[in-house]
């Protein structure tokens, strides 16, 4: 892939200043274990992926999306490399975060898409400030019941696998950061 496309993806990601717009003090970081990935590292990680894992119709899921650094890069990869329009690229992209402000900022940065407030590790857990619709969607996407029951069945996100493993015709690229 050309250096120009990587440069353009980085520019799109950097339209939002790194970690800007949300006050993240020491107490918040300690309580939430928030870690944000700089653009250069996001681009480097994407360069190591087989481009086909981000092809049209392939699902991209970041289960701890924060402000959307990785998802914004994945969206623009789909648009610039595969020629998808933004709306089609967003249909393939899912983000989840436990913090309301991160979810809202990620959704704004993406220009829409499926970004939910929820707990990826315990999707049935109801979080403060989580909307009823987000909770219902978390249950629909990731399943209900206790953790041991969920481990016995496959996720309800049909067409989902893990990075470098396909299930059906889609792939999940989980947060690596």
CATH C-level class is Alpha Beta
Which topology does CATH recognise? Rossmann fold
List the uncertain runs.
Answer: 152-177
Helical segment tally? 8
Topology pattern, helix = H, strand = E: HHHEHHEHEHH
Instruction: Give the total of domains.
Output: 1
Distance between the termini: 23 Å
- Structural class assignment: mainly alpha
For the biggest β-sheet, the strand order reads 1-2-3
Q: What is the count of β-strands?
A: 3
Mean pLDDT: 81
The fraction of residues in strands falls at 5-15%
Main sheet makeup: 3 strands, parallel
Shape: globular
Q: How large is the radius of gyration?
A: 16 Å
DSSP helix fraction: 40-55%
CATH architecture annotation name = 3-Layer(aba) Sandwich
Structure write-up:
The protein is mainly alpha-helical and 177 residues long. It has a single domain (3-152), classed as 3-Layer(aba) Sandwich (Rossmann fold). The protein has 8 helices and 3 strands. A 3-stranded parallel beta sheet has the order 1-2-3, sandwiched between helices. Strand 2 (93-97), helix 6 (100-110) and strand 3 (114-117) form a beta-alpha-beta unit. The model is unreliable at 152-177 (pLDDT under 50).
